[in-house]
Amino acid sequence: MTHATPSVGRVTAAELDFNPLVSPHREDPHLFYRAARAHPPRMSPTLGAYMVTRYADLRTVIDDPATYSSAPAVPKIYANAPEVVEVLRRGNVPETNAVVNEDEPAHTPIRRVFDAGFTGPRVRAMLPTMHETADALIDAFPDGRADLVGDYAVPFVQTVISAIIGFPAEDTAQIQVWTDDQTTLWNPLAPVEAHLASAERMGEYTRYLQALIDERRARPREDLLSDLIHGANGYPGLPDEYTQCIVRGAARVAGFDTTRDAITSTMYAVLADPSIRERVLADPVKTIPRATEEVLRRDAPHRGLFRITTRDTTLGGTDLPAGTPLLLLFGSGNRDETVFPDPDAVDLDRPNVREHLAFGRGLHVCPGAPMARAEIRVALEHLMRRLPGMSLAPGYEPVYIASYFFRGLESLDVVW
Predict the structure, then answer these.
(1) How many Cα atoms sit within 13 Å of 341 on the Cβ side?
(2) Are 184 and 16 in contact (CB under 8 A)?
């Protein structure tokens, strides 16, 4: 078991705001989370929503979709400034609800089609690609040193998610540019100049996706694009604009950033503690899944999703009128000391670790969770088998990306 170094500093009631893009929350959001859990849900002026940080309150919201609607779960790109919206309209960029924004009864027919891309058979079918990609990337490492973010996790997950969706492998670099544009347009804290630059490129992305949709309509394959177009699990296919939005967001953004960050966060936890590293080397089949779940709990790669109240209610002692926006901070709930004792520790034997909220829960639990777990397992197995002497580079200090939605390392420098 390893213990995290407590954050230095004190948070007063006046500082109970949250901005994950700036210090100190960028480096350690748990400074805010720990302080916020001592209070009922409160409004963050920066984000314009009440922060839900306690595990019990998070469960209350997740388990009551009738009271807490998912309609605002992720922001709309057409909610940006008028000049940004004008650029999007000029490019004929479609926007529907994302599947995670749907409440019942609209949710189930869309979700069941989307689920088809991540079934057990689809996961098993992707395993050869995962193994081949991991070995090829390790073969290409510079002698004795690598950055496990840029040299490994990024291209590994890009290759896998492109194959799942049905993107041509040769288009990966361009698709990543467009994916980053989607994330930027979702980020209300990004400057308008960044929104404009991203919006300019989204028209090209729209035309690219439509060409793929048209091709799959005529010639379906075993990929997510074909599922969305032709239907699955007894439900009909989706309109083209809905397919575009699912592919842009729920599939490509969520399927890339979270898995990339989970791979590198888990490797960092393994390499940072010699006792964990030795357990993984001694029994990788048993220990890697344990390490994965514990790090998903401790360092959830996705911060959380928005909700809005449909009626007057009370949550954790705070009265919330109908129409109140909430941000569910899963990373805070995963370190709630009332549920996970010694929450900042990496404990490979934690008995209730699978109760974490890293993949959400209930109606909107992440459909790609089985695929993500397989990717993390394969990526770590190959690293530990091929490079058992690997260690953190001398002087390495973790630096976390400035991201509205995601929590991950900018780099992970290792030597062997």
Answers:
(1) 4
(2) no
pLDDT at position 20: 86
Instruction: Pick 52-307+332-415's CATH classification: 3.40.50.300, 1.10.10.60, 3.30.470.20, 1.10.630.10.
Output: 1.10.630.10
Alpha helices in 319-407 (DSSP H): 330-333, 369-386
**So what's the pLDDT on residue 15?**
57
Task: Tell me the angle at which helices 284-298 and 274-282 cross, rounded to the nearest 10 degrees.
Answer: 140
Tell me how far apart the terminal alpha carbons of the chain are, to the nearest angstrom. 24
The pLDDT of 267-279, averaged and rounded, is 97
Task: Give the list of residues 6+ apart from residue 308 with CB closer than 8 angstroms, or none.
Answer: 68, 69, 71, 72, 323, 324, 325, 326
Q: Which of 375, 370, 369 is nearest to 152 (CA)?
A: 375
**Residues 135, 129: Cα–Cα separation, whole Å:** 10
- Does residue 189 contact residue 404 with C-beta atoms inside 8 Å? yes
Q: Which two tokens stand for residue 173?
A: 């670099």
Position 47, amino acid: L
Instruction: Decide if 91 contacts 341 (C-beta within 8 A).
Output: no
Q: Record the pTM.
A: 0.92
SS3 call for 347: coil
| C-alpha–C-alpha distance, residues 98 and 276, integer Å | 39
| Average pLDDT of span 266-274 | 97
pLDDT single digits (tens) 46-72 = 889 999 999 999 999 999 999 999 999
Ramachandran sector of residue 324 (left: φ over 0; alpha: ψ -120 to 50; beta: rest) = beta
pLDDT tens-digit readout, 96-144: 988 999 999 999 999 999 999 999 999 999 999 999 999 999 999 988 9
Banded pLDDT at 234 (limits 50, 70, 90): very high
Name residues whose C-beta falls within 8 Å of residue 263's C-beta, 6 or more positions apart in sequence.
Answer: 148, 152, 153, 156, 157, 375, 376, 379, 380
